[in-house]
Aa trans domain-containing protein (Citrus sinensis), 351 residues
Amino acid sequence: MAHDILGPNWGRYYVGPIQFMVCYGAVVGGVLLGGQCMKAIYLLSHPDGTMKLYEFVIIFGCLILILAQIPSFHSLRHINMIALALCLTYSACATAGSIYVGNSSKGPNKDYSIRGDNESRVFGMFNAIGIIATTFGNGIIPEIQATIAPPVKGKMFKGLCFCYAVLGVTFFSVAISGYWAFGNQSGGLILGNFLDGGKPLVPKWFIFTTNFLVILQQSAIAAVYLQPTNEVLEKTFADPLSKEFSLRNVIPRIISRSLSVIIATFVAAMLPFFGDINSVLGAFGFIPLDFILPVVFFNLTFKPSKSSPIFWLNLSIAVVFSAIGVIAAIAAVRQMGLDAKNYQLFANVDH
């Protein structure tokens, strides 16, 4: 759309890189989340264990290294369905666990106050906006799949409605129950709150099962979001005249895909701050893609009268979210810098 409406340079040098960053950033976040869940399972059986988070991130990265070799996006359609079932299941588990802890005497004292000075609170608010944008911006995959075959508009609308129904149910159930149970001690990964100083607040089998489901689902998510990176690399290094599984194409494919996973794993291990990664993706990626560009495209394509409400509504949305995006980007970079300073690189954070 950017290529056709704004011109080829906008598509190639602005929208394309943003989409690439969003997809690759999702891989980084998925590798980190998988490593955090593996660490939680490890601490259940070894409360005094000495293995660090970055070691589990590397182990999970090795799993993704294998899955990254799946040939094409189309071959992932069954994995997508499995990932959906896993997402619904572990979200239900996280909600049930939070309600259990909130109603038990084992839970922490609930404190709902907002910590920090006024500056930290303001930046924290915009940081949260970036995270929310990332959460609800993940409709990109069903949108792509829905537009493959006609009728395009109907399929896209159904796909996005289904996507946001799942997002609404899972996101709000976990967010509300988790904050109710743990207050301002809620972590970026709420499952991490089920362990308090190595002591489980819910049955051990429940923590193991929930984290294992997340590991499986994140494996699928990382494999899906790797595909755009794979496409870019293979257009550069592959030979279209040779067969897909010829040595000429297999060797560059294995090398390029392996390097992309290794780099994502290194970044996840170096900056193990799941909330910060989501905030950066939202500020730099999802806010422009979801809130700014669509209304700009509409005005440029359909050219509504400058005296019509729709023109000014779209213009207002573009201006307001451009400002929010800039502030959210500053807040996201600021928070990541603070966390990197406080915890150091390759930190062994709990959640």
About this structure: The mean pLDDT is 86. DSSP finds twelve helices and two strands in the chain. The first helix runs from residue 2 to 5.
